[in-house]
Amino acid sequence: MNLKIISIVLIAILLIGVNNHVFAEKKVSKVTQKICIHHYEKYKINEKLFFKKFSERRYFDDCMKLYKDPNWYFRGKAKIDRKY
């Protein structure tokens, strides 16, 4: 009986983990990407100030996801990265 309960709990935990991964892979909309591109230099200049100023905005989490992604790129990003 205990083995059956443990098995069910383990399966539930695995399924929850799989579902969370699927939701975590949500794509960032083109509109949000444009907003993030617009604010990228502000982020690079002062990350703490950027967090304080923009953390309540709807797009903040998506922008941070993009900023931390090493594969994310837009025209002019390399120039900003070299500058800061």
Description:
The protein is 75% helix and 0% strand. The chain has five helices and no strands. α2 (30-45) crosses α3 and α2 (30-45) crosses α4 (60-68).
Between the first and last Cα atoms, what is the distance in angstroms? 61 Å
Globally, the shape reads elongated
Number of separate helices = 5
What sequence of helices (H) and strands (E) makes up the elements? HHHHH
Mean pLDDT: 85
Structural class: mainly alpha
What ranges have pLDDT less than 50 throughout 5 or more consecutive residues?
A: 18-23
Domain count: 1
Summarize the structure.
The chain has 84 residues and is mainly α. The chain has 5 helices and no strands. The chain has helices at residues 2-24, 30-45, 47-54, 60-68, 77-83.
SSE layout and pairings?
Elements: H1 2-24, H2 30-45, H3 47-54, H4 60-68, H5 77-83
Helix pairs in contact: 2-3, 2-4
Question: Features of this protein?
Answer:
0% strand; 84 residues; mainly alpha
